[in-house]
Write a structure and sequence with these properties.
Length: 228
């Protein structure tokens, strides 16, 4: 299983046209270049249809955007953990604000991912939920207030107390749990503040995917994590 390094940056490709198909592969290669140049672990999270070709194209870790807690069989349209694993994917996001689950389903998804040797980054929208998630023992938790996602208004500046409260509550449950933050992260300064507030990295999307120069932005993010 992949070894997680700290600090880290996770780039969620979502379903942006800029991170679809051939453009997804190119973006992943830029992330790989930034990771190798700075020495900071960068994980990319492409769409399901792009997983296999991106795993084949880069050496940095690749995560899925979701998986369903199902067994092989009659589940048309769902995401099978075995299929994700077969591509060479290293892990998965769970409970992103755009793909939210009930807590019992988060638990089932974490257990299934562990069974298949997949790492898990579980997202939560507030400190209390983050603590509840941490009790389920994912590999990473990430706090993301949904109202700030895609706004360009970073959670590290707009709601720093959400991060500090999350860090405090999660570490009461599991002192060693890596905590990331996301929502509105678009500048290196946002990353610097996030780490000062107690996180070990960031989960970003449009700030990288829609940037004119994703490689340089990623390098600036990575370098910001190294200054802490």
């Amino acid at each position: 299983m992949l070894k997680l390094n700290e600090p880290m940056i996770i780039v969620n490709f979502k379903t942006f046209i800029e991170s679809t198909g051939k453009r997804a592969v190119e973006l992943a290669k830029q992330a790989e270049r930034a990771s190798k140049e700075t020495g900071v672990q960068i994980i990319v999270v492409p769409q399901f249809v792009d997983l296999a070709k991106i795993v084949e194209s880069v050496e940095i870790p690749v995560f899925a955007q979701h998986l369903d807690h199902i067994k092989p069989g009659n589940s048309t349209g769902h995401i099978l953990a075995e299929a994700v694993k077969e591509t060479g994917t290293a892990g998965t996001l769970i409970n992103h604000s755009e793909r939210q689950l009930y807590l019992r389903d988060i638990q089932s998804s974490i257990e299934l991912a562990k069974e298949k040797g997949l790492l898990t980054c579980v997202c939560a929208n507030n400190p209390a939920t983050s603590a509840a998630v941490a009790a389920l023992r994912p590999d990473i938790t990430s706090i993301e207030p949904p109202e700030l996602i895609g706004t360009g208004i970073p959670v590290s500046k707009a709601k720093p107390e959400v991060i500090t409260d999350t860090v405090a509550l999660v570490h009461k449950v599991d002192k060693s749990m890596p905590i990331l933050c996301g929502a509105g992260i678009s500048q290196a300064e946002d990353v610097t503040i996030a780490l000062k507030l107690g996180t070990l990295g960031v989960l970003v999307a449009s700030g990288i995917v829609k940037a004119k120069d994703p490689y340089n932005i990623l390098c600036s993010f990575a370098n910001a994590t190294l200054q802490q």
